Input
Amino acid sequence: MSRKIVRVLLVDDHAVVREGYRTLLSKHEGLVVVGEACDAASAYQCYKDTHADVIIMDISMPGRGGIDAIEHIRRFDAHAQVLVFTMHGGAVYALQAFRAGARGYVTKSSPPDLLIQAVRDVAEGRMAICPEIGEVLALDRLHGEKSGLEELSPREFEIFRMILDARSTDEIASALNISRKTVANYHYGIKSKLGVASDIELFYFGLRQGLVGPVSPITDVGN
Output
């Protein structure tokens, strides 16, 4: 008995990575790639055109990130099935992705077969979480420590990440199609929810939470 066809939309800003996904999926019966997108805007339009059964979505993309893209697509279609496939293995990313409407979360360090099974599970309406994320979510709940990040909405979290990525107010406004004033209001609200008073404190908060890496020291290449 042949498997039900699962139509997949690939969303990742690296063409080589998308080609790898396509090759992997093509080796498995019933999985068909019906579209590809390199950013959130093209992902939204491609989903509107294809109504794919499963969207494989990266989080880190230029402009509007994956978490905001998930929320945007889910506002268009509450039944859209999104599987996050990303390098980010922290609990905060997974929690925000699920809050935005994702149905699965798999890290890129996972075995290929696990991604394939996750695609099938999400297509059937089941949740899919790789063991690595299941463990960090369990530990996060066990410790029960509140950082303030859980208070941020998916849109606020996306803007927070963009601020940490040194995006200007104009860049954020353009990426999210909102006004500079709206960005400023979000910026203020994020600092208020996280209990910080300045952008320097905001940066160090992100550093402590593992949302940004430590700054590498500058070396004198002349020595």
